[in-house]
Amino acid sequence: GVGGADWRGIGGEGILVRKSNGKAQIRKAVMAAVDQHPGAVSVADVVASTGLGAHETALVLNRLAWETGGHLQVTEDGVVLYAFQCDSEANAFADQSTRMLRRAWSLTGNLLLTFFRCSFGLLLVLSLTFTQLLTGAGLSILGAMTGTPGSSASSPFNLFALLGSLVRSYGSTAKATKSAKSATGMERLLESCFLFVFGPGDPNVTLAEVRWKLIAKKISVSSGLLSEDELEPFLMHLHGRQQANEILEIAVRFDGVPECSELGQIIFRFPALQGSAMARKERHPVGLSEATWQFSGLSLRAMIPIAGLILGNLCFCSALNWLVQFLPWFGSLQVILWTVTLLWGYAALIAVFPLCRILLNYSRNIVIKNRNAARLAVAQAIHNPSAELSQRLQEVAELRLAAVPTREAKIIYDTELSCLEQSERPWTPERGYAV
């Protein structure tokens, strides 16, 4: 020991791993071994260079390959190789930086959309109130000129009531969608406006969570052994580098270790998910399916008055802006000029935004439908395999039978009972202790 710490030498280069530092030092040692074997490296190569355990080495190699865009290869001798690009450490840093930039970009987009939603609601309230005041003033003047004061009808809009409805209507998309169907009056109007302009939101906001649950269930019911063919229906992308990256991500998340079968296919073994109690009681999940984007979630009958309100507000603001621009005595008041110009610009933006969403949703749904169709085709191919695929699937099935017996698991110990009670329970060779 050096300084009271437990050290062990690694390879001829004298790389040291301090057990108290754990994962960071192990990762550094594996990366150093990878850099010493440019191109491709096997678990045995890294173990020989570092002295680490084979299982922990495979897990670190999985993560390195996932982070740096590496992939798996199989030699004619049946050895699984991890293929890396040059300078894996620099690639890992670049990949992590790219992910951080994507998260920052996504966060910035969400903040801008939130600001747009808030400003839209506030300006919609101000626009309705401003329109009501001008309409009421015009009716009052018209009534005074014609001698019929009763023509100045009272407006149903109230600034404070509108602001209260805005606060209640602005919330999560799911709540807004649900409440828009049960709310009444001005609150229903504002929530419907939000849904018409911004839509019900991302229908796949929980897709990542659902996907990992499906994959975990698939691994569990498959006795912890899966081939790449069986993982494909649960991938987001089924082509190129993205497919290989997602398979490695699954291995990283569930501590899977790649192995080469006799037929030369890669089979992932997940020791932590082997021997599940649900292995023969649950149905195998078929695959992942994404939901398509919806325009508003409202019926056509409910959207007609909202579209009329938005177009009417645009026409009114356009006429008001024209009057301000061409009447010098009215446009000389800068505050009024700026306010009317702002209202007109926002009214135009609100009218154009739903049209842009229609085109955006159309392009999104084409991509989603293509991905769903590709996954369905893979799932159907597994259900009705070709001769070659059937041979590979049969090999995996035989490996599962060898790894986990087909008989029902025996209960040989139960912590609910004491040691004496354990020994007094009836036992049979076929079913173990009686439960």
Describe this protein's structure.
The protein is mainly α and 435 residues long. 61% of the residues lie in helices and 8% in strands. It contains 15 helices and ten strands. It has helices at residues 23-36, 43-50, 54-68, 88-146, 159-169, 173-180, 185-198, 207-221, 228-231, 240-253, 300-326, 328-331, 334-383, 387-403, 419-424, and strands at residues 7-10, 15-18, 40-42, 71-74, 80-83, 225-227, 257-260, 266-269, 427-428, 432-433. It has a three-stranded antiparallel sheet with strand order 3-5-4. Strands 6-8-7 form a three-stranded antiparallel sheet. A hairpin with a 3-residue loop joins strand 9 (427-428) and strand 10. Helix 1 (23-36) crosses helix 2 (43-50) and helix 6 crosses helix 7. The longest helix has 59 residues, at 88-146. The protein starts with 6 loop residues before the first strand and ends with a strand.
| pLDDT < 50 runs, ≥5 residues | 1-20, 150-157, 171-184
Strand order of the largest sheet: 3-5-4
Through-space gap between termini: 51 Å
Largest sheet: 3 strands, antiparallel
Percentage of β-strand residues: 5-15%
Report the helical percentage. 55-70%
Instruction: Please tell me the overall pLDDT.
Output: 75
Helix/strand order: EEHEHHEEHHHHHEHHEEHHHHHEE
